Amino acid sequence: MKLSLERNAPMPKDCVLVEPEGTVFLSFMQTGFIKAVSRTRYASGDAAATGAFMVSSAQPKDGEESDAMHALTFVSEVAGDEKIVILERFNTKDDAEAAWSMVHRSLRRYVVNERRKRAWRTFLRYVGVPFIVLAVGMAMVRYLDSHNGSLEALNAIMRAAGTMNGTQASRNLSQQGMTQPAGSASATLVDTTRSADVAAVSQMASIHFGLDNQPPEKTLYVYSDPNCPACKQFESHITDLAKDFSVYVLPVAYQGDDHGKAAAALCAKDQQGAWVSALGGAVSRDGSDCLNGYTGVKANMQQFERLGFNSTPRVVSGTGFIFPEGAPAKMIRLQAAEK
Question: Which residues cross the membrane (predicted)?
Answer without folding.
Answer: 123-144
